[in-house]
Amino acid sequence: MSATPSATPFGKLERTLAWRYLRARREHGGASLIAVISFIGIFFAVAALIITMSIMSGFRATLLDALLGGEPHISAAVDGIPQDEAQALAKVISETQDVVSVSPYIEQFVLLSANGVRTGGVVRAVPPADLKTMPILKDGGAAALAAGFGEGRNGGNVIMIGQYLAANLGLQPGDSVEVVTSQMRSGPIGQTPISKAYIVGDIFRTGSAQLDNVYVFMPMEQAQILFQSKGRYQYLDIRVKNPDTTEIVMQRIAEATGYSLLLRDWKTKNRTYLGALQTERVMVRLLVTIIMMIATLNIIVGVVMLVKNKTRDVAILRTIGLSRGGVLRVFLMVGTVLGSLGALLGMVVGVLFILNIGPIEALINLAIDGEVFPAEQYGLDHLPAVLDWGEVFSTGAYALVMSMLVSLIPSIWASSQDPVKALRFE
């Protein structure tokens, strides 16, 4: 025989009672102001956690993209090897499993001078044909190649320069900039630094102010002359399919080249930086999670107040046959609904905020008549955010589970009351 609605766990009777208690006004013994506050607290906590973790994920993804675009996944030192041998090793490495590309490069610190301004920079010398292998160059260097990058005697005199570096020096495409190296040449007045004037063929933008403020790209053949490295490369830039598996690929490269090269991956170079990012992410998650826990604890007070207001109703329901389990489930549903509605609204607001992060940032900048996120200070030209749907749903699930757990305490108290004593005092 099937159970009657009144006896069915979470059946129509229990759901109707929970809904009536939620809708009832305070003067009629309904949910108290504290319950409403707990709902608002959960809403803000869920929205804040989603927004915070999405922005943190955006920071991490953007910074890692800049790192992985601006430096090799794996670098191999070939400074002491003749160019022909280095090219042979590059061919062997390119045939190694999971290696996508291998490109030689030279990287040197220089002093740049233009329009009466001097500043430091980093020259990255690459073969013109290898520009397309660099993820930070969104057009593969097409504009620079069209301007003559790599053309002419000894690679020509056309270079590429980062957006913020060009702005600091007051440069535009077609302007001239002097590059001063640390290498010295002998002259009538003694040792003087080697320098040469170059034409800006293109101003590139990577999305990372840190890279755009220092990098200059120069044709390999010209850099070998400027840095007195004729017939030699400095490093091999090795790109792999999955940057997280560089340790495995390095072992394969070492075996293929007879362990003749000094290999170093991007994770080793940035170990401290990556550790700080991970620690920051964990601490932010912990902090906002604690805030959410505090918000859900307010449900206990709200449901307790509701139980006290409904003591007489509970006693009557118990005398006409509602079980202790039924009473527990009624108030459990009240607390859970408060938490789930707050979590659902927080999820919606958090997702909408992240999906419209650009216009929101622009609106805030307009309101404060400035920049809430200065690119020069943070090293990024916009507020990054990556919406992780797994993070969104896990946050909502956490809020729901916490709401159920904290609702159990007052619900158990309500179900344990003696109806006879409750009616006597009424």
From TrEMBL:
Keywords: Cell membrane, Lipoprotein, Membrane, Transmembrane, Transmembrane helix. InterPro entries: ABC3_permease_C, Lipoprotein-release_system, MacB_PCD. Pfam families: FtsX, MacB_PCD. GO terms for cellular component: plasma membrane protein complex. Residues 286-418 form the ABC3 transporter permease C-terminal domain. One of its GO terms (biological process) is lipoprotein localization to outer membrane. Residues 36-255 form the MacB-like periplasmic core domain. The chain crosses the membrane at residues 30-56, 286-307, 328-355, 396-414. It comes from the Bacteria. It is found in: Cell membrane. It is a multi-pass membrane protein. The keyword Cytoplasm does not apply. Belongs to the ABC-4 integral membrane protein family. LolC/E subfamily. This is LolC/E family lipoprotein releasing system, transmembrane protein.
